[in-house]
Design goal:
Layout: H1 6-16, E1 20-24, H2 28-41, E2 45-50, H3 51-57, H4 59-72, E3 78-85, H5 88-96, E4 101-104, H6 118-132, E5 138-143, H7 159-164, H8 169-179, E6 183-186, H9 214-223, E7 228-231, H10 239-247, H11 260-268, E8 271-276, H12 278-294, H13 301-323, H14 337-343
Parallel strand pairs: 1-2, 1-8, 2-3, 3-4, 4-5, 5-6, 6-7, 7-8
Helix pairs in contact: 2-4, 2-13, 3-4, 5-6, 8-9, 10-12, 12-13
Length: 356
Amino acid sequence: MPLVPMRQILDEAAKGGYGVGAFNVNNMEQIQAIMQAAHDTQSPVIIQASRGALMYSKLIYLRNLIEAAEEEFPEIPLAMHLDHGNSVETCKQAIDLGFTSVMIDGSLAEDGKTPNTYEANVAITKKVVDLAHPLGVTVEGELGCLGGIEDGHGAGLSTDEVNAHLTDPKQAEKFVAATGLDALAVAIGTSHGAYKSGRKDPKTGEVLPPALAMERIHEIHKRMPNCHMVMHGSSSVPKELVDIINQYGGKMPGTFGIPIEQIKDGIKHGVRKINVDTDSRLAMTGAIRKVLFETPQKFDPRDYLKPARDAAYQVYVDRMNAFGQAGHAGDYKPITLTAMKKAYGFGGDGCGCGCH
């Protein structure tokens, strides 16, 4: 089975009323863990690479690893996605290498940190759509700014600034119409990284979950029931994973993630793609620390990377089940980029997949 357009995966998720995890990768072990989890749960899946991952691994290495994963598990619908592309050129490079989906983060300037104007966001997002759709490639855009900085992207905003940069539902409707994108990443108070909340209980000082503006997702869904929304910064940062890291020499106080129940609420109201990165990092780091702490004489990378891969695998299985994608890998016949190109109106009358 060739890599499939992410648009088809999202369309099918909308039909089935479930979400699909989009898991960030940096290396072979993460890709192997994702695909084994997708195989074991029979889940369609999105593997994505951020600019930080591309700087670390180089885009061509990750591309080839993902293609190897598709070859090993041909029954799994798999989309290869560029996460947080910062320019038209970055997106073009990914498309030229065979990525079936790209995100252009026009909510931020090209430095990946400075909030952009709405007009600039529309202009660059439309340019990427005009580049990608004639090739059958899916486009994700973002409106509003997320807090936190991870892998070089994120606005690094204070709590008050985050609230000022949440996605406006009325503006979202105009943005989708003006750009013609396939998926919209919404800013509702989530943020990148393991430190997602500055909220504390005034009496106990205990860190509380971030206050998410879920009503904005509800309103966007009412306005655009066919819009595929994306939740970024959606790792749950499980306490048990952080505890393992701290037990074996780590120092990660005050971490907090996004409760699974809030993600499920988003899925009920049009969220189809859920970005998860930090959770697998935590799982792998804890497993590695445990091996090196308990057996300091070991030096073979396989001795700690295999447990790390196993720990990440369990995270992916848990998320695939929680998001509802488990069991849906065989629901539909995957289409090619060529068929998707026709569905967008370039070179044919459509593919019959219901995407338009």
